[in-house]
Amino acid sequence: MSVQEEVDGTPLPPGWSAPAHQPGAFELPTTTFRERAERTMARPFARTAIAGATDHAAELTWLKFEGVDHDGLRDQAKQIRAHAIANLPDYLEQWIDNAEANGTIVHFAADEVEARRIIAEICVDEQIASVVKSKSMASEEVSLNSALEGAGVDVFETDLGEFVVQAMGDRPGHVIAPILHRTKDEVHALFSEMAGRELPNEAEALTAFARAGLRHAFLTADGGISGGNFLIAETGEVMLVTNEGNGRLTTAAPRVHIALVGIEKVIPRRRDLPVLLPLLTGHGTGQQITTYVTITGGPRRGAEPDGPERTHVVLLDAGRSALLGGEFEEALHCIRCGACQNVCPVYRQVGGHAYGWVYGGPIGAVLTPLFRGQEEGGEVAQATTLCGACDDICPVRIPLHDLLLGLRRQRAEQAQTPRREQLAFAAWGAVWSRPRLYRASTVVGGAALRVLARGDAVSTRLPGLRRWTDGRDLLLRRGRG
Amino acid sequence: MTDRASFLAAIRATPRGEDPGLPDRIQAPDAPTELRAGESPVERLVAETELVSAEPHRVARASVGEYVAELLRASGSTEVALTEDLAAQLVPIRTACEAVGVHADDYRVVATDRARASRLHATVTGCAAAVAATGSIVTTAAGAGRAGALIAPLHICVVEETQIVDGLHALFDGEALAGAGSLLALQSGPSRSADIEKVLILGVHGPGVVHLVIVGD
């Protein structure tokens, strides 16, 4: 009897195979933020679900740290991250030495093209025909799945949400909750189609369906691909957190494990984890700790009963080292918990897809221009209200607000803003920095507004300000001036 | 293809940011993952185990074998694997399992046969440590293997009271992890997901039911 028929006693549907869809393409630079945001906002479920889930997550985070010195903990975390990044080459070198001593084969990807080529070549060399993948934002950055499919490798995303994303040809909508924007009905329709029969429309049954197929994938895949939450320099280890257990199985079941990890994930020591881990999980999901924390150091050794024959780690630069020592270095402190998304008034309305690339919310509005360049990604740095809620919740105290302002300034200096906007601000600056002109402008402006007003507000579509007055009234101040 | 030297050289060529230094902390941080003053480690472990939806049992050493065998029998498990980190409890558990008709094999043997591994109803493991403040059990590649704790739908972990550490600080700063081998793993309760409309489901890729058998004298 084959494994396929045995898994969990559930026979697999004959057509069950790796989802054939290509992942959704990045939308930068072909669409605007407004166009992408409108698509999400036109779906009432997505709007309600994103706002509800992010509210809940942020509340759980604050509750989790009640009664402890949360600020003190964050100060320690910031110090660890700042120290690691300030000494990045040294810690990377230490990590590489120790990882190689553990038997890990370390590869170096200067950019996304190289990352794709290295991993495709590992698959060829190791004769890997199918891989199970545990959620990795770095692999999203380099569009790994399409590269693997191009190399003839079957790819199974094994995080439940990522599996749905893959099967739908979608992209993840949140850094830790990939299908926040999708309904149970959509998942039900998808899985029923894959099963070739009507499945019960219950989360439990849908999860069981995915589990059965994915367990088969775990037991038959030649390779496992994961990301990494931290690289521990003193031991050469890679740490992964998951709740489903797919991360652990990815590093355990296949004969080859490949991890793709950004170079900024390095931390000095295991004993920095008691500070960083509760912040990662508490700010990510509001959990004391995630169900599984997996720290791997190379392939199976001597008498160990299971584990991969070989472990490869691909270190990814792809724009990271260019930030070192500069104005935006603190963006590298990010531990990808997603908390800034949960409190961002813009993200909560428009969701992750509006940001056009891999990362959404405030950190996405920072990383997208930094990694994709101002010309392609600069627009999303405008997609914030600068309210500072992200600074407030960031577990490693990244000054996201300052980074966003810096990126906006840089964009204006590089003349990436529309010509009309440049002229308007130049005129405004010229007038309001001269007292007489300033006073004159208030008289003229006030008179103009009174002409346009109906009652106490201007709600007609002002030329040049149509987008502003479309959604808001400009209230008049009565009295002098 | 970029090699190690050129990859690191490119990073070294960048300016160096401000370094706040790194304190050599000897105190546990003030975090939810540490014990509070005056708390009993074993009581906190029991409480946290329940909070993560696992089931704690406090059992006297002499009856561990029978107790575990009864948990397995009551769950209807007949195909079971035992890992080597059960140490002194391995033989009593195996003997008690045989007495109630539960077939218990060495995980080392089962792990070589994937079809058989996929048929397992339960695994019984020991651990390298248990973390009181997080309800976590800590396993190693050398002990329970990489997948020993999560290959089957039911996982029973035998924890000696002497293996309980206060919090994450004690775990990562102490000696509990010496000789872990190629994997060091924390697991806190059953596998879970809330990806589909935030409905919590237990038992996704790992076990849906987890028992901690805490052994004292």
Structural summary, described in words:
The complex is a heterodimer of chains A (about 475) and B (about 220). Chain A has two domains: about 5-15 and about 35-315, NagB/RpiA/CoA transferase-like (Rossmann fold); about 420-475, no CATH class. Chain A has helices spanning about 5, 35-40, 45-65, 70-85, 90-100, 110-125, 135-140, 145-150, 160-170, 185-195, 205-220, 245-250, 275-285, 340-345, 345-350, 360-370, 375, 390-395, 400-415, 420-430, 435-450, 465-470, and strands spanning about 105-110, 130-135, 155, 225, 230, 235-240, 255-260, 265, 290-295, 310-315, 455-460, 475. Chain A is α/β, with parallel strands linked by helices. In chain A, about 50% of the residues are buried. Chain A starts with a helix and ends in a 6-residue tail after the last strand. With about 220 residues, chain B is of the alpha/beta class. Chain B has a single domain (about 40-215), classed as 3-Layer(aba) Sandwich (Rossmann fold), CATH 3.40.50. Helix content of chain B is about 25%, strand content about 25%. Chain B has seven helices and twelve strands. Chain B has helices at about 5-10, 40-50, 65-75, 90-100, 105-110, 115-120, 170-175, and strands at about 55-60, 80, 105, 120-125, 130, 135-140, 155-160, 165, 185, 190-195, 200, 210-215. In chain B, the strands form three sheets. Chain B has a six-stranded parallel β-sheet with strand order 1-12-7-4-2-3, sandwiched between helices. Chain B has a four-stranded mixed β-sheet with strand order 8-5-6-9. In chain B, helix 3 (about 65-75) crosses helix 4. Chains A and B meet through helix 3, helix 4, helix 5, strand 1 and helix 6 of A and helix 1, helix 6, helix 7, strand 9 and strand 10 of B.
